[in-house]
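Write out the bound-state structure for adenosine monophosphate.
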Amino acid sequence: MDYDKLAEVYERLEDMPSKLGKRDILAKLFEESPASDLEKIVLLATGQVFPSYSEEELGVAEKMMRRAIEKATGHSETQVVEEFKRTGDFGLTAENFVKSTKQSTLMRRKLTVDKVFGSLKELPEAVGAGSQDRKLNIIAELISSATPKEAKYIVRTALGTLRIGVAEGIVRDAIAKAFGAEASNVEHAWNMMPDYGHIAAIAKTKGDEGLKKIGIKLGVSLQVLLAEKAPDLKTALEAFERSIIEVKYDGARVQIHKNRDKVNLFTCRLEEVTRQFPDIVKLVKENVHADTCILDCEAVGVDRHTGRPVPFQQLSQRVQRKHDIERMMEELPIQVNIFDVLYVNGRSVLDEKLSDRRDEMEKIIKVVPGKFQFTEYVITKDLKIAEKFYKHALEIGEEGVMVKNLDSEYLPGRRVGYWLKVKPTMEPLDLVVIGAEWGTGKRTNWLSSYVLGCRDPATGNFLRCGMMGTGLTDDQFREMTKKLQPLILEEHGRSVTFKPSTVFEIGYQEIQRSTNYDSGFALRFPVLLRDRSADKGPEEADTIDRLRKLYESQKKKS
Ligand code: AMP
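---
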């Protein structure tokens, strides 16, 4: 197919506001695509050259694009920069400059989809010395052969800024419409193999039966099962006959594929991250005793000194990092928490019950404590035990818990209520530390169990609304003690009161009515999110009125 036909479709998609309209435009395009071009056209129509799960990236930076436009259209750097400033888009810059170049259109070679796709695909192959020049030449050559409209879309595709408003669901429905398949079958295929190019080719040649047969392929990430929110632990616990309660870690989901000596790692957005985590690859090679398998895990970054989990933002630096990986590996060690298995020794176990999948998982993993382990869990129906476990999860600095149905299968890409997350979900509150207790045991010399207070604007006093001893490392307790000790106003036995000064940002699960505290409210499962003292004084702390409002809004929701 000629590329100008695709460029025309892009233009129509850009102008078409309705989703159904977009679907129809795409369906017609797919239907009319010759079999040899179909996969390429479907990928290009979504702005891609490589399917989502692929590690390949085009790697074209704006500076390179600027130089390619200069080279292809004979304009100077200043002219390109000026035009870019005016239009804010390199696609439009290229379109306008190609329009104004004197070159006769007769001299242009007609571009085909095959040619554009093939050239773009060559971009990541250019590596090492002179690779930048080779990339530049590939793009410049395409722009030189392009019509103005084609140039616009080639540039945007190469930069990854196509933005024609074609979401995943639209492509799914367009494939279904083009080849008379059920949308649910296209969706099943997408959940198993996120590559609409390949899926369209199957839909065209084998129809619904072919789509249904698409199953797990090692080395190709499949969509992960998603969790739903539960309002509280009790509701979550009552949802299933048999449930397992696991710690919900605040890390990055990692799907591990092992195919003998080959290991691939993917994020839950299906991006390959194998290169970023040689430490995980090594752990898998040494401790997974199966020829082939797929594991579902949560990777957590661990503070080298305290052994405590670090916030996700820090770990995300490792996910994004493409160089200096050895140093990052040392600075931020990883802990892999394994919670599911989807495939073992050549066999999909998606349809098996979670309890059976866990048995399979336990058979093939050699645990390395603190590094490569199963998620911490408890199996119980007793709310008291579950609450104790939930508190423990918060105490070790994790997000909350996951309550999972032990009798459920694994449905890729679905949010069907088999997993329920329970975490402190209310908007955090900024509260003042107005008292504490001297600790016992290991905490003997530390001020722990902080009394939290909200502000009463009528009197300027602080009213007690909760006790919190969670979310701090030993070092933080030590530091807090140093900071709070000079603020002590009174001491009664182990209890102390402070001059109101320190402001904590507190997460919690719920606000309850309480007669224990003079505010009349108590926070359930409070946990320290941040010490806000550096940027907030007690006079800016949250008020009793805000607590009351949140309590009321919570009642409305339930
Ligand atoms: P959320 O992102 O809040 O919807 O929570 C779901 C995410 O929690 C999953 O995608 C995982 O990345 C993460 N997670 C942490 N611990 C677990 C666990 N034990 N089981 C399943 N997912 C977990």
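---
DSSP finds 20 helices and 20 strands in the chain.
The chain has three domains: 48-159, 232-422, 429-555.
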